[in-house]
Each structure stands twice: as structure tokens, then as C-alpha cells.
Amino acid sequence: MRIVDIRERSASIESDIANAYISFSKMTVSVVAVVTDRIVDGKPVVGFGFSSNGRYAQGGILRERLIPRIMEADPDSLLDADGLLDPIAVSKAALSNEKPGGHGDRAVAMGALDMAVWDATAKAAGLPLWNLLAERYSGGRADETVMVYPGGGYYYPGKGLDALQDEMRGYQDDGYSVVKMKIGGAPLKDDVERIEAVLKVVGGGHNLAVDANGRFDLETALAYSRAITPFDLFWYEEIGDPLDYALNATVSELYPGPIATGENLFSHQDLRNLLRYGGMRPDRDWIQLDPALSYGLTEYLTVLQVVDQMGWSRRRFIPHGGHQLALNMAAGLGLGGSESYPGVFHPFGGFADDCVIRDGRATLHDTPGLGVELKQVLHAHLRSILELD
Ligand SMILES: [Mg+2]
What we know:
Enolase-like, domain 1, binds magnesium ion, TIM Barrel, alpha/beta, five-stranded parallel β-sheet, 12 strands, magnesium
């Protein structure tokens, strides 16, 4: 099996939505196709990947550094013992001559590329990606369904409490149990009213998570903590700056409910520091590292080694991003679940067209690879933008 071409493009996911920190009016993602010479059903195997939302496309890093290193590598050095593409070897080649630390846009670029390589490998192996992961890393055990929750409740221009309630009611009508809304983009008093409005329609705090998107200083974080403690929420997410571990630790001492964070940490080293210094509590808190922003599934395998070494359960990990990669990884690696984007970031957010959500859990696909082909709008968009036939 040989890589014959790697294509990358930038794609728009612009929309009117905003969280407490950014608007998505100019948001883009990188999309990647890894074209191979392996023929399955009369066609070359092509792996697809894309970066997750929130960090913009990274075409320069892909074009000038990561992709040339793979194309210049000895093709045999990129294969496993069965002659399939070895995503770990490909990642190593792509990231050669990169200094440690500074995990940022490079991690986003690699996240898109790594997803495409894993998709190609699973397709060549004839297995759904979740199944391949279970075979290789979980003793063949995979979860049949995955806990999912919709990332929603954004601030839109002119969006009132009725519209927010309708949005949340809609998610539960679609089969979700836990829903999530943004906070920190309005004054505390207004956010409390928004939370109370949503609680009226979702059945209680155990079905509602709130997300501050790293907005709060310590004083604001603690004011919100006091205000929301009585609601007994599912989680309180990304309270302060992603790298302010002391702030997170202080809040965790004073806020009794679960805290979630990690979507803006891009490496196993950063995750280890969060677990060392962030005050995260293994009995209740949640980690949201997003593989499609943090060097990909390959890096996440190292993340899970850190998780195991530090005595955490993999079930406390629910990746950010609402993409099919996280869904596959949750099922095949025994994670706690995956975010879902039924309403935003189209066509990249969301799962296969025939994916069923019931009682807050999603079903998996049974075709080889990541399942991109089963999301028709996404597949057509990728083929078009990457100029494939
Ligand atoms: Mg978040």
C-alpha cells in the first residue's frame, strides 16, 4: 500500500453563532484526502480527514511541512507488518524536525491529516474504524452505542429564552438526554435566567451542561460557581483560560459539581499537566481533549497511556468536536462518550445520516473506515472541494 497523493484545502464553516469568546463568522477548517494505490471494489482507497471547529484551517503547515515529509519518506517505512499504512509511522514522519512544546496550529494541521490516514488504513483493512481500534487496542471489545450530547445553546443575534428552550426541546425530541448551553456571553443575572429557562424543559440539572469557553477570571468563575451550584448541573465547562491550571484547581476546591475541560489542550504533555496541576477530580470531572485538534488519534493513544498511568478511567474522557472520529474512538477505545453537533458546523459536524440517537446514545456504522461516506452531504462536499473525480 502506497500513498500516491495527499490533498488539502480550506473549507468554510462560517455562521452567525458565538460563544463567550469568539464569533464563528469567519471560521474555517482544513480538509485532507490521502489517496492510495490500494484498490478496493475497483477503486483506490481514499482516506478523508478534517480538523475540528474553532481553530481555523492550517493549509500552510500542511503544504509546507507535514505533507512533503510524508511524500519524501521511504514508502516502506510507512507500512505495518501487514503491509497497510501505519498511522503511527506516518505521523512520526510528518512531525520529524519539529521541536517539542508549542502545541498549537501544528497540532490542528496534524489532526486533520492523521484522521485521513486512519480512515485509509481502516478502509484498507475492511473494518469500521471503531472496530479496528477495538481489535488493536481494546482486546476486541467495543461499545455498541456511545453517550452523546449536543453542543448547542449558542448566542445568536436576537435569540431569546423561547428560542433557547425550543432548541433544547428539539434535541431531546431527537433522542438526546444531556444538552449543553453557552454561558459567559451575557451578564451573570441573564445567564442564570437562561439556565432556569432551559431547566424547565430538560428535566433537571442532571441533563444540562454549561460552557464558559475559557472566558472567566477567578472572581467571575467563583461568582458563577456560587450561582449555579444549586442547579446540580451535569458539568461546568472550560471555566477559565485553558492553561490557567491554578484557577481551575481553585474552582474545583469550591465548586462541588463536575467540571469539564481540555478542548484547548493539544498534546499528551498538556493533558498530563492538567491532571497534575488543574485540580481535576477523577471521581466526577470530565476531560474533553479533541483528537481532531491535537495531532489526531495517534497522539490520543499516547494520551490514553498517560490516563492509565495516572489512574484515571477512560470513561471520564468525552472528546470535544462532534465529529465521526470521536464517535469511533469512544466506541473502540472505551471512552465516556462524544460531543455531537446536530445543529451547527455543517457539514462537518454530525454523524452518519442513518445514525440513531436514543436515550442519549448513538449507534455506530458497519462500513469500513470513519464513516464519512455515510454522511452524504459531507462526502459530496469533501470530494468536490478536494477535486476528486
Ligand atoms: Mg467547550
